């Protein structure tokens, strides 16, 4: 799915995208292009990106690249795919039902689930509060 | 019982739906529907429209005319009573009579029956049946006229070369007129061969504006024959050159035109008819208006002149109330934002936008973005503020680069504990302590009791 969504392989690219995405939710997917679950998630992201393009920016980050290892440690990413949400260069925490409130681990079963999650992030980002996305994991 | 049966029957009759062709809707009101005001209005409008079409047909009934078979397809009539389309597809002769099929249909017995049936069914009034049909007497008169007309047409076609030239010219005129090429018609007629017996000093030139205006007004509106008057002109002129004895035809035609009430048609013949010493009755009261001089100065669509409403000089005269509102300066709107000023990262966003604008202008921006820049992130296994977690990570990173220090093993792991969890833990601790106190108290009491017992 690297040819469909922007794929980042360097730290500088990730940094610039985080810094320059303003007043929009930034979705960074950390994963592998060869992983089946990652591919399913990428498919959902690709289908949804056009619908949410006005308030969401989606980018894929290849975890095999050397420069990205820093972010894997910083974000404590051990399972892929993992999605980290940012709003105005600020990390957005979310309650997805697990103990880890810093990221979304796994894939989305439906396109609408992803849309709902990013909508929640956008709303809470404008309100400056925590995102509660438990219901989207309970569905799965 | 019989009374109830009758009621049921009447109810059943009312419940049966039928389609009203006048109103174009289904109803279950039975015969009562004909007395509804909506139906009456629809019926009156329908009959009025068809009446106008029939009046056009009756015009040609009184004065039959010839038309080329190429243009007969333009003559179509939809009979409302019979629900059929009447086409003019008679191609037996080089010239066919206008609306011959329509006249034949309206005079037929089937049409009469259907008209009567329609009037009875939809309440149009049986006394008005004759308005929507052609009587046998009128039809017979029309047939006679058609025969004589066709005989004349056959005669004129059999005349020598001079008339052949005129016939060709007539065909050109008709074709050009049917293509709505009024300019060519205008150029054709003045250059037409004028018979020697016409008085040139009495004949007034046909101006293009008069001709075009009359052309547009002449003829039945239904048929929309663009060459209607031109046909008349061509035929009239052809008759002038062809046979002098048939002068009665154009005279009667003009008379019929004037009696038909269209004064503009009389003006078409004003110039030509003056040439033979007769004056059309409808000429005197008309005023000729020519705008050729103005058009030549200002130009028109064909010369490529701009339309008058786009004229720049007239724009200043607009009412200020009608002028579009002046746009607010963009700079005043720049400060206004619909976004919440208290949103996450609002300060960062504003600052970053300014920096980006400065970069676009080419100015230098003081950024602290080096290769080690990290975003604001709350780590999983570190509690405290995000700045602290970032600092700790940077320290870890440096330690990883310098394996000699082994600081990673020294860094304590401080997992994040939520407030709820901390409260729960505190409550558990308190309960445990209370239990211990109670237990210890109970143990103390038990010991004291044992001592007393021993003593």
From TrEMBL, chain B:
Top-level lineage group: Eukaryota
Residue ranges of coiled coil: none
One Pfam family linked to the record: CCDC84
Entry-linked InterPro entries: CCDC84-like
Composition skew (Basic and acidic residues), residue ranges: 313-330
Family matches, as PANTHER family: CENTROSOMAL AT-AC SPLICING FACTOR, COILED-COIL DOMAIN-CONTAINING PROTEIN 84
The name this protein goes by in its record: TITAN-like protein
Segments of this protein annotated with the region Disordered: 303-342
